[in-house]
């Protein structure tokens, strides 16, 4: 498998509007973060996780022209408001895109973006909405899902498996459960939320994330969903070799 970090920033990105870089060095290109999203690929299957508001720019920056399926982790704006950019993928495929979410999130997305799922008098539907199960086969990739606490809702934590390789993706959670630890255990790569150093009510902070990494023991971990307090070079210097901050455009083939 292969994955690409399309975006690793928070809901406001880095820098924030107003050219607010916070503690991030504006001279370091890896501090420029779009809203969080990843692409996971096998030789025959390409899965997009979340349609961020920066989806168009992310696809252009990484020369992506199609995906075989979409998974939404949840329905918060920074994870779904780029949904309209799937129209171009629809035009390339010439059929609605298989689009997965947990039942409550799928219902919300269909209500908010009904035209994308049901179509319109003048426009066809672009998304084939499907419920994301605990174990789902998408092409030749097996996707396993766990519900993560995220404030008053849950987000979908994901494990992708293909040809004895495993990639886990855990963003937007405020606490770690036993079910999460079981799903993420001993994966090859763990891409995990680390919003900031200070605790946050709905997101993992750095110490919490490192504790979770120590518990699930992945071969390698990448921090994502980082805010303007998380400078790339400073983090890179402090973290052990098996943990690194992600950056937009980072790609790794297993």
From TrEMBL:
Keywords: Hydrolase
MF terms (GO), sorted A to Z: hydrolase activity
Coiled coil: none
One matching Pfam family: Lactamase_B_2
Entry-linked SUPFAM superfamilies: Metallo-hydrolase/oxidoreductase
Keyword Hydrolase: yes
Domain of life: Bacteria
InterPro entries per record: Metallo-B-lactamas, RibonucZ/Hydroxyglut_hydro
Domain Metallo-beta-lactamase: 34-225
UniProt name for this protein: MBL fold metallo-hydrolase
Species assigned in the record: Parasphingorhabdus halotolerans
